[in-house]
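Sequence design from tokenized structure. All designs in this work follow the same two-part layout: the structure record, then the generated sequence. An example of the structure record is given first.
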């Protein structure tokens, strides 16, 4: 993969955080399930927390968990060959981070919740709506905290989008266009776990599509999806010449590298969505929210690392004139987004508070991803049916 794409894919990583004066008190015992790429960001943030002991970790690949903890300078961490072994052996864990590839999210999360362990689950929540429902039911019967790993939620610019909508500045929002993505940026830095069906489960649709959906759905209060017309394709990932150094990846590619959807949401809102890991275009467009009083444009980003692609703009009327107001990009101060995602999760455990990114919201995000995939497979519009949790 070209250097430029590596840069884009790694932009979610935090700059080192100087702020460590977070609430101390009770210490929490934490385990990490899946010690691959993103587990590195989790462990670095846990190590920034003064009230966390990292006590256990698991990975299916022999020796990988041991090497991971050694690389981070941690000794005495108990390691296991699967999430099941870890959960069976560890009796007083407070929390686990589930950092496995997407297809193992549901199994690991449900097993941990059923053992009474709080879970920070990486995004996307899982692969299918059925899995998401099973996860939410496990959360309910456990009474534990389950938070989904959408760190962009903690970015000031993302919060600003929600504040603008909630302030009423836009009036009633009736149409949303969102998505984005890359001209070339299929993530294969550590092999095929994102692109093989049995591990990734879904491609660009889930990997970065879930972020762009969360950005707008969170802003408008997570309305329930009603119907979906979906499309997905895989014209780039299946080309051996896409991977000059690993042409064999083309055979492993079993997911989508582009997806689009037209979604009817409760409250008379239309959502027009497109997302790309690879396409013959620079961007499929900015995110726009059209409201009865004003419209908001959010410049597209290739990464979904929690920042917006440039200053946002509000299009409105003043004294009968059509004017635009520029919202400057807010530079983040204080802890990085990953530290905030970990800290808010730990604080919810300590205070008995609500999950910072609730599964009950992300259930609707997953229902849209699932609806797009199912509609694309069936070749027609589908009705979204979300059972009671
Ligand atoms: N929040 C972010 O910014 C961000 C960024 C990158 C990836 N992610 C997400 O993180 C997840 C992992 O991505 P990655 O790039 O680290 O993948 P990876 O393939 O590098 O690592 C996943 C690891 O999980 C292990 N694993 C799978 N099933 C397991 C099980 N049952 N028990 C123990 N270990 C198991 C695998 O052996 C592998 O080592 C994905 O869901 C991805 O979408 C999030």
């Amino acid at each position: 993969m070209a250097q430029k794409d590596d840069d884009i894919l790694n932009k979610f990583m935090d700059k080192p955080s100087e702020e460590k004066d977070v609430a101390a008190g009770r210490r929490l015992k934490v385990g990490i399930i899946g010690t691959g790429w993103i587990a590195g960001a989790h462990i670095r943030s846990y190590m920034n927390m003064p009230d966390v002991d990292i006590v256990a970790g698991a990975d299916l690949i022999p020796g990988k968990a041991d090497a991971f903890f050694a690389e981070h300078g941690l000794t005495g961490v108990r390691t296991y060959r699967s999430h099941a072994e870890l959960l069976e052996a560890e009796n007083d864990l407070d929390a686990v981070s589930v950092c496995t590839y997407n297809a193992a999210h549901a199994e690991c999360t449900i097993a941990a919740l059923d053992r009474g362990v709080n879970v920070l689950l990486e995004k996307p929540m899982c692969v299918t709506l059925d899995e998401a429902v099973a996860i939410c039911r496990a959360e309910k019967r456990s009474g534990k905290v389950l938070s989904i790993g959408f760190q962009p939620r903690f970015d000031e610019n993302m919060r600003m989008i929600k504040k603008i909508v909630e302030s009423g500045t836009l009036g009633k929002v009736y149409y949303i266009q969102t998505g984005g993505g890359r001209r070339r940026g299929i993530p294969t830095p550590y092999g095929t776990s994102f692109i093989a069906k049995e591990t990734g489960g879904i491609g660009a649709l889930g990997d970065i599509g879930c972020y762009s959906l969360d950005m707008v759905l969170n802003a408008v209060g997570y309305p329930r999806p009603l119907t979906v017309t979906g499309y997905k394709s895989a014209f780039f990932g299946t080309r051996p010449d896409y991977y000059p150094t690993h042409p064999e990846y083309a055979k492993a590619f079993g997911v989508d590298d582009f997806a689009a959807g037209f979604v009817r949401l409760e409250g008379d809102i239309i959502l027009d969505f497109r997302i790309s890991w690879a396409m013959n275009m620079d961007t499929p467009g900015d995110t726009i929210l059209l409201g009865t009083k004003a419209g908001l444009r959010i410049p597209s980003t290739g990464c979904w690392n929690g920042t917006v692609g440039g200053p946002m703009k509000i299009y409105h009327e003043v004294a009968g004139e059509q004017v635009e107001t520029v919202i400057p990009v807010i530079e983040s101060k204080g802890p990085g987004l990953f530290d905030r995602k970990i800290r808010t999760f730990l604080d919810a455990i300590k205070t008995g508070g609500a999950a910072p990114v609730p599964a009950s919201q992300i259930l609707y995000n997953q229902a849209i991803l699932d609806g797009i995939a199912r509609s694309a497979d069936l070749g027609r519009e589908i009705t979204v049916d979300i059972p009671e949790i």
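The two ends are 42 Å apart (CA to CA). We note this feature because it recurs in several other targets discussed in the main text.
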